[in-house]
C-alpha cells in the first residue's frame, strides 16, 4: 500500500510541473506577440536623423522612431522663448528615455522644458500620407511637423505656474516635403512627474492607415477586456445582492480594480478616451485602483472570514488601506507619485504573502486552489510584462490573453462552486419535495380520519345543547356553544386541508358557466352576518344586480368570496366591509375592502403563502387565502392585496367575463350544457321520463291529489331541468324566476313544497326562506334550498333561515326526487296530524256535550215540553252538520259553520239559562268559506273559559264585519279574560297547562294561517273579557 506522504509528495511534484508548464505557456504567448509586432531590422536614428530612404514603411508595417534625437534643454525651437546653452550644439539623447541627465548634467532633474527634433529622410518618390502615434510625452507637449503645429497636449511653458500638465496619447497625419524630408519637433515641459520627463515611450511612424489599424487593434482588445471585466463585476455584484456572500462582493471589486488599473496605466489610456478625466484624477484613480486591487486580492485569494479580521496583522492591513485611500483623495498632484511608490512598497509584502499562500494551497492538489493560483499567476505575468515595457519605453499593441485566461479561470472557479451548490440545492430540493409530499399525504389522511369523529362530536354536542337547554345553567349553555363554535372552526380547517391537498394534486375541476356575482355575494354576506351581530360592522354588497356575468364555477367563487369576507370580518372590529366589482379588458375585478387593522408591506407579501397568518391569535391554519389564490388562478385570474397598518385592506381578484354566446338563452342547440350546473354530469344526458324512483308512491289518481311545488330560480335553464327531473305526472310544478313573485304566490295559493336556489339577485334564497317562515313554520310549508357549494357555513345559514333541507349542485336526480318526495309527504302528514287533532278535540268534547244535552232534554220533559221539542230539533241540526263536516273538504261555507254554531249556542243557553246571554251580530255571510270547526272551538272556549268562569255568568258576541276584500269574524266575551303570559304562550303555541287548554286555539290558528296566511288575533286582559278575531278573505 502506498504511504500517504508518498502520494502527497507525488501530487506536489505534479503541481510544480503544472505551474512551470503554465508559466512557459504564458511566456511563450507573450514572446510570440512581442515578435509579431516588434520592429525587426529597422534602422535607428543617428545624430538626430533617421535615414530610411529605400526603406520607407511598407503597407501593413510601421516603424519605431527610436535612436538619437536632438535635444535642446530650456529652448522652445518653434514657439520661441529663452535660448538654450549659448554657443553650444544640441545634445543627443536616446528616445525612448528620460531627459533627466540631459536637462542638467551636473545635477540631473526630471523638471524643466526643452525641445526634441528628428529629421526623417524619405525618398522623393514617397508621397503618401503618413501618421505618427505618440503614446506619452511628459507632462505636456506641442508637436510640429515641417514647421506646422499639428497637436498640443496641455500647455508647455517655461515655468511651472503657467504650465498646464496633460499627457494623452494621440496621432497626427502629415506628408513629406518636396525633398522627401519630414522634420519632427516636440516642445515639452514637465513640472509634475518626479520619475522623469520627455519622450519616455516609443513613437510609431508609418502610413496613416497602418497606424490607425494598429491603434484600432490595441484599443479594441482593451475594450474587449474592459467589457468582460465589467460584466463579470456586475454579475458578481448581482449575485452578492442575492446571496449576501461577502466573497462575491470581493470578487466583483477585484474585477473592477483590475479594469481600472489596466485601462489607466497602459499606453493607450483607454479610461481617458472613454471618460473626461483630468490629469490629476488619472493619478488619483490609478492609486485608488492599486489599493483596491491589493485589498480585494488579499480577501479573494485567502477566502477570509469575519474572524480573521480579529488578528492584529490583518487589522493593520485594513487600517493601512483606509489610510492610503484617504491620503490619495486629499493630497495634491505633486504628492501622488511619491504616494504611489509608498503604496507599492507597503503592500508588496501582503501581496507576496497572498501569492505564497495561494501557491501553498495549490500544492495540496485541490482543483479550486490550483485554478485560483494559475489565475493569480496570469495576472502577475501581465503586470510583469507591463513593467518591462514601461521601463524600456516599448510600444506594442495591447496583449489581452493572459487577462482573458485569468478571467476564465476565476469564472470557472466561481461556476464550479455554484454548480456544487446547485447540485446540493437540487438534492435538498428533492428531499424537501419528498418531505412536503409526505406532509401533504399525512395531512390529507389525518383530515379524513378527523372528519368523522369531529362531526360526531359536533352532532352530539348540538343534540345535548338542544335537549338539555332548559336543564343546564346559562354558563353551561354558553360553554357548550363555545365548544360548537370551536368544533365548526376545526371542521373548516379540515376542509381547507383537504381542498389544499386536492389543489396540489390537481384533483379540482371547475364547472364553468355564466355566473351572476350579485347573488353570490349576497349569499356569502348572509353566511357571515351572524358573526357581526355583536360588533359594529356593516356588510355591504355594492355590486349592481345587472353587473355582467363572469365565466366561473359558482361553488368555487362562493368559496373565494367567503374566504376573503370571512378574513375581513376577523380583522375588522368595527366599520364597513364592502364588496365591489368593475370591468376592464374582458375581466371582472372583484374587491373586498374593510376598515380593519390592516397589515404591513412584509405581511402583505406573505399573506397568500400556505400556512401564513397575519395574526396567529385569530385562529385558522393560514390556508384560506392560499386556497383562494390557487382557485382564482385556476379560473385564469389574479389576486392581490393593498393594505396599510390601521388603514384596512383591499383584496382584489379578477375573473374572465362571460361572452354573449355563453350567456344567451338555450335555443335550437338545446340545453344539456346549461343544465350541468344543476344536475350531475353523469345524469344530465339521461332522460328522466323512464327513470324509476325506488320505493316511489304510485302516481296520484287525479290532478288535485298531486303535491303542488313552487320552484324559484333566476336561471330559466335550471328551472326547465328541475321540471323535467320532477315528473309532471307526479307533481304540479309552478316555476318562477322572481323571488317577489314567489312571495305573492305563497300568499295566494296553497303549496306543499318550495324549492329555491340560494344565489339569486335582489333577494337571496336565504332571505326568501326567512320571509316564508314569517308566514308558515317548517311543517306548514317545507323549503328545500339548492346551493352551489357544500360549505358548512352556507348550509348552516340555510338552516338558520328556516330551510327544511338542502341539496348541493350538481345534484343527482334520484337524490332530488327522494328529498322532494319526503318533504311533500311531510307537509301532508302535518296536515293530517292537524285534522286528527281537531277530530280528537271533537271526540273529547262530544261525550260530555251529549250527556249534558240529554240531561237538559230529560229535565224539560216535565217542565217545558215545547222547549224540549225545540231543543231536540237544534240537537238534530247540530249532529247533522257535525257529520257533514267530518267528510267536508279543506274549507266549508261560513253559512254552514254559522248553522252549527247557532245550534250549539241554543243548546248551551238552554243549559245555562240566564247565566249565558248571546248576542248574534253576524249578518248574511254570503259565499265566504273557512276551514271546518273554526268558529265552534272559539265559541266553546269563550263560554267554558271566559263567561262561565264568572259566578254571575256574562255576555257573548258573535260579530261579522264586512270590509273590502273579505270580512272580520269576532268572538267577544266579558268573562274573566287572560293574563299576558297566557296570551304569549298561545301566540308561541306552547301548551298553557296540563289539561289541554289552548290546544283547540292553536289548532284553529294553525289551520287559518295555512289557509289564509294569517291566524287568530287575541285581545284580552284579566277581568275585562276577551276578543278573538280572524280575517276571512273573499274567495
Overview of this protein structure:
With 1035 residues, the chain is of the alpha+beta class. 50% of the residues lie in helices and 17% in strands. The model is unreliable at 83-87, 304-310, 660-677, 681-704 and 991-997 (pLDDT under 50).
Primary descriptors:
7-stranded mixed sheet; alpha+beta; 30 strands; 1035 residues; 5-stranded mixed sheet; 28 helices
Instruction: Supply Rg.
Output: 54 Å
Helix content: 40-55%
| Straight-line N-to-C gap | 118 Å
Number of helices: 28
Q: Number of DSSP strands?
A: 30
- Structural class comes to alpha+beta
Report the major sheet: 7 strands, mixed
At a glance:
The protein has 1035 residues and is of the alpha+beta class. 50% of the residues lie in helices and 17% in strands.
What is the topological layout?
Layout: H1 4-37, E1 49-51, E2 63-64, E3 67-73, E4 91-95, H2 100-103, E5 112-121, E6 130-134, E7 140-145, E8 148-153, E9 170-174, E10 181-190, E11 204-207, H3 208-243, H4 246-265, H5 270-274, H6 279-302, H7 312-330, H8 333-362, H9 367-392, H10 401-467, H11 474-505, E12 513-515, H12 517-528, E13 536-541, E14 550-552, H13 554-570, E15 574-584, E16 587-594, H14 601-606, H15 624-634, E17 639-643, E18 649-656, H16 660-663, H17 672-675, H18 681-684, E19 708-712, H19 716-725, E20 732-736, H20 739-748, E21 753-757, H21 765-773, E22 783-787, H22 792-801, E23 805-808, H23 813-863, H24 865-886, E24 892-893, H25 894-912, E25 916-921, E26 929-930, H26 935-945, E27 954-963, E28 966-973, H27 980-988, H28 999-1012, E29 1017-1020, E30 1026-1033
Parallel strand pairs: 1-5, 13-15, 19-20, 19-21, 21-22, 22-23, 25-27
Antiparallel strand pairs: 2-11, 3-4, 3-5, 5-10, 6-9, 6-11, 7-8, 7-10, 12-14, 15-16, 16-18, 17-18, 24-26, 27-28, 28-30, 29-30
Helix pairs in contact: 1-9, 3-4, 3-10, 4-6, 6-7, 6-8, 7-8, 8-9, 9-10, 10-11, 11-15, 12-13, 12-22, 13-15, 20-21, 23-24, 23-28, 24-25
Amino acid at each position: 500500500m502506498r504511504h500517504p506522504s508518498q502520494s502527497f509528495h507525488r501530487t506536489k511534484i505534479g503541481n510544480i510541473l503544472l505551474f512551470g508548464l503554465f508559466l512557459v505557456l504564458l511566456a511563450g504567448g507573450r514572446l510570440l506577440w512581442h515578435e509579431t509586432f516588434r520592429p525587426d531590422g529597422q534602422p535607428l536614428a543617428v545624430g538626430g536623423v533617421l535615414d530610411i530612404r529605400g526603406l520607407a514603411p511598407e503597407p501593413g508595417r510601421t516603424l519605431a522612431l527610436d535612436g538619437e534625437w536632438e535635444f535642446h534643454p530650456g529652448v522652445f525651437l518653434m514657439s520661441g522663448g529663452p535660448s538654450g546653452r549659448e554657443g553650444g550644439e544640441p545634445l543627443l539623447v536616446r528616445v525612448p528615455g528620460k531627459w533627466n541627465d540631459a536637462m542638467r548634467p551636473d545635477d540631473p532633474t526630471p523638471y524643466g522644458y526643452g525641445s526634441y527634433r528628428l529629421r526623417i529622410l524619405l525618398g522623393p518618390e514617397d508621397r503618401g500620407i503618413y501618421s505618427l502615434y505618440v503614446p506619452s510625452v511628459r507632462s505636456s507637449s506641442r508637436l510640429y511637423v515641417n514647421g506646422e503645429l499639428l497637436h498640443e497636449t496641455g500647455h508647455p511653458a517655461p515655468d511651472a505656474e503657467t504650465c498646464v500638465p496633460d499627457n494623452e496619447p494621440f496621432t497626427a497625419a502629415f506628408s513629406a516635403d518636396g525633398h522627401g524630408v519630414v522634420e519632427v519637433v516636440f516642445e515639452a515641459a514637465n513640472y509634475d512627474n518626479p520619475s522623469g520627463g520627455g519622450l519616455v515611450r516609443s513613437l510609431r511612424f508609418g502610413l496613416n492607415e497602418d497606424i490607425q489599424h494598429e491603434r484600432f487593434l490595441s484599443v479594441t482588445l482593451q475594450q474587449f477586456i474592459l467589457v468582460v471585466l465589467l460584466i463579470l463585476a456586475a454579475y458578481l455584484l448581482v449575485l452578492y445582492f442575492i446571496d449576501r456572500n461577502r466573497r462575491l462582493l470581493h470578487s466583483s471589486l477585484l474585477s473592477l480594480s483590475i479594469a481600472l488599473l489596466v485601462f489607466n496605466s497602459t499606453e493607450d489610456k483607454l479610461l481617458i478616451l472613454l471618460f473626461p478625466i483630468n490629469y490629476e484624477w488619472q493619478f488619483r484613480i490609478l492609486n485608488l485602483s492599486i489599493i483596491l486591487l491589493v485589498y480585494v486580492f488579499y480577501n479573494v485569494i485567502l477566502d477570509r472570514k469575519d474572524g480573521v479580521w480579529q488578528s492584529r496583522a490583518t487589522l493593520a492591513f485594513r487600517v493601512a488601506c483606509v489610510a492610503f485611500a484617504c491620503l490619495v483623495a486629499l493630497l495634491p498632484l505633486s504628492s501622488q507619485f511619491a504616494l504611489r511608490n509608498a503604496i507599492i512598497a507597503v503592500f508588496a509584502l501582503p501581496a507576496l504573502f497572498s501569492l505564497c499562500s495561494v501557491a501553498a494551497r495549490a500544492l495540496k492538489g485541490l482543483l479550486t486552489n490550483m485554478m485560483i493560483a494559475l489565475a493569480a499567476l496570469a495576472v502577475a505575468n501581465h503586470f510583469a510584462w507591463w513593467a518591462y515595457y514601461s521601463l524600456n519605453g516599448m510600444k506594442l499593441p495591447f496583449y489581452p490573453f493572459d487577462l482573458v485566461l485569468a478571467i476564465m479561470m476565476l469564472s470557472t472557479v466561481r461556476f464550479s462552486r455554484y454548480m456544487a451548490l446547485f447540485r446540493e440545492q437540487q438534492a435538498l430540493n428533492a428531499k424537501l419535495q419528498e418531505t412536503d409530499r409526505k406532509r401533504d399525504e399525512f395531512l390529507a389522511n389525518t383530515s379524513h380520519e378527523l372528519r368523522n369523529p369531529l362531526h360526531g362530536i359536533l352532532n352530539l354536542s348540538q343534540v345535548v345543547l338542544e335537549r338539555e337547554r332548559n336543564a343546564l345553567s346559562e354558563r353551561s349553555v354558553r360553554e357548550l356553544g363555545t365548544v360548537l363554535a370551536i368544533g365548526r372552526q376545526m371542521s373548516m380547517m379540515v376542509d381547507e386541508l383537504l381542498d389544499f391537498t386536492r389543489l396540489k394534486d390537481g384533483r379540482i375541476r371547475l364547472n364553468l358557466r355564466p355566473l351572476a356575482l350579485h347573488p353570490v355575494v349576497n349569499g356569502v354576506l348572509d353566511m357571515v352576518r351572524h358573526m357581526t351581530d355583536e360588533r359594529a360592522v356593516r356588510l355591504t354588497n355594492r355590486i349592481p344586480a345587472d353587473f355582467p356575468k363572469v365565466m366561473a364555477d359558482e361553488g368555487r367563487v362562493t368559496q373565494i368570496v367567503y374566504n376573503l369576507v370571512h378574513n375581513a370580518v376577523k380583522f375588522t372590529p368595527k366599520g364597513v366591509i364592502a364588496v365591489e366589482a368593475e370591468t376592464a379588458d374582458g375581466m371582472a375585478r372583484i374587491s373586498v375592502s374593510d376598515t380593519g387593522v390592516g397589515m404591513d408591506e412584509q405581511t402583505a407579501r406573505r399573506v397568500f403563502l400556505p400556512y401564513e397568518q397575519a395574526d396567529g391569535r385569530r385562529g385558522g391554519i393560514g390556508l384560506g387565502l392560499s386556497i383562494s389564490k390557487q382557485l382564482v388562478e385556476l379560473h385564469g385570474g389574479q389576486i392581490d392585496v393593498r393594505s396599510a397598518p390601521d388603514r384596512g385592506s383591499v383584496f382584489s381578484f379578477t375573473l374572465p367575463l362571460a361572452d354573449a354566446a355563453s350567456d344567451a338563452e338555450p335555443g335550437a342547440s338545446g340545453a344539456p350544457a346549461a343544465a350541468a350546473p344543476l344536475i350531475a354530469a353523469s345524469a344530465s344526458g339521461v332522460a328522466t321520463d323512464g327513470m324509476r324512483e325506488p320505493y316511489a308512491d304510485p302516481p296520484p289518481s287525479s290532478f288535485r291529489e298531486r303535491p303542488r311545488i313552487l320552484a324559484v330560480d333566476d336561471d330559466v335553464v335550471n328551472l326547465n331541468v328541475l321540471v323535467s327531473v320532477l315528473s309532471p305526472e307526479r307533481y304540479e310544478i309552478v316555476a318562477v324566476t322572481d323571488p317577489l313573485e314567489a312571495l305573492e304566490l305563497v300568499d295566494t295559493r296553497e303549496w306543499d313544497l318550495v324549492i329555491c336556489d340560494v344565489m339569486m339577485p335582489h333577494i337571496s334564497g336565504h332571505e326568501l326562506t326567512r320571509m316564508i317562515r314569517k308566514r308558515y313554520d317548517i311543517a306548514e310549508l317545507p323549503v328545500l334550498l339548492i346551493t352551489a357549494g357544500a360549505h358548512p357555513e352556507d348550509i348552516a345559514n340555510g338552516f338558520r333561515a328556516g330551510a327544511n333541507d338542502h341539496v348541493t349542485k350538481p345534484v343527482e336526480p334520484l337524490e332530488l326526487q327522494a328529498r322532494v318526495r319526503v318533504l311533500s309527504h311531510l307537509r301532508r302528514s302535518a296536515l293530517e296530524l292537524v285534522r286528527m287533532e281537531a277530530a280528537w278535540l271533537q271526540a273529547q268534547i262530544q261525550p260530555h256535550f251529549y250527556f249534558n244535552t240529554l240531561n237538559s232534554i230529560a229535565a224539560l220533559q216535565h217542565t217545558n215540553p215545547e222547549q224540549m221539542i225545540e231543543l231536540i230539533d237544534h240537537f238534530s241540526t247540530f249532529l247533522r252538520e257535525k257529520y257533514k263536516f267530518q267528510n267536508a273538504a279543506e274549507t266549508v261555507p261560513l253559512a254552514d259553520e254559522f248553522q252549527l254554531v247557532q245550534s250549539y249556542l241554543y243548546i248551551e243557553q238552554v243549559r245555562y239559562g240566564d247565566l249565558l246571554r248571546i248576542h248574534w251580530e253576524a249578518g248574511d255571510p254570503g259565499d265566504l268559506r273557512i276551514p271546518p270547526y273554526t268558529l265552534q272551538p272559539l265559541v266553546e272556549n269563550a263560554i267554558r273559559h271566559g263567561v262561565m268562569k264568572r259566578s254571575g255568568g256574562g255576555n257573548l258576541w258573535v260579530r261579522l264585519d264586512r270590509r273590502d276584500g273579505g270580512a272580520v269574524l269576532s268572538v267577544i266575551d266579558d268573562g274573566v279574560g287572560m293574563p299576558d303570559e297566557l296570551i304569549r304562550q298561545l301566540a308561541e303555541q306552547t301548551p298553557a297547562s296540563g289539561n289541554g287548554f289552548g290546544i283547540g286555539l292553536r289548532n284553529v290558528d294553525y289551520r287559518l294561517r295555512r289557509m289564509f296566511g294569517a291566524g287568530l288575533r287575541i285581545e284580552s286582559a284579566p277581568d275585562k273579557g276577551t276578543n278573538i278575531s280572524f280575517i276571512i278573505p273573499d274567495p
